[in-house]
Amino acid sequence: MAGYLDSQPDLWADQNTPDGPVEINPAFGFWSWVDRLNASCTLALCPYYPSYNRAGSRVENFTSSIATAGQTGWGCPNSNQLPYCADDALRYGKNGSYETFELFMAYARRLNPIFLILHQFNEFNSSDEGWDANTNDDIEPADQWGSRSLEIVRDQISLYRHGRASAGPPEAGDLP
User: Is residue 66 assigned to a domain?
Assistant: First the structure.
C-alpha cells in the first residue's frame, strides 16, 4: 500500500503524461490508498489521475476519494486561489455536488476493479487547516456536517454495483 502513486511516474507502467487512470508497473505491485483527481483543473496545472494495477487481465484495485489535497497540501497562502490550492480536489463542487467522489466512482465503474477501496472512512482527525468540510477527506464526519456524505457514498456504491454511468462519466478513450 502506498499513497499518491499519481505523483511517482517511476512506478507507472507507462511514464508518459497520463490522460486517464495510471497503471502501476506490475513489477512493483503497489496498491494506492489515495491519489489525486481534480475534475475542474486543467491538465497542465493538475496532471493527476488515480492509479490502479492489474491481476492478469483485470484491474485488481482502485481507490475512490471524497476529496484530495494538491501537491503542496490543502492551503496555498502564497496563491491567488485562497483559501485552497488550485490543484485541490474539494469535497463540494458546483451546487453542493460531490464532483470529486462522483468522478472517482465513474472511473471505478469503467475499470471494474476486483477490490474497490474507499478512502477514508472515519479518521476523526482535522486536517492541518482545521475543520473545513471542503478539505476534509473523511467520508464519515456525520457529527460535523450531517449524513449527506454517507448518502452520496451509498448512492455511488449502488451505481457501481449495478454498473450504471452517472452524469459526466469519463470518456471511453480516457481508460486503458
Answer: yes
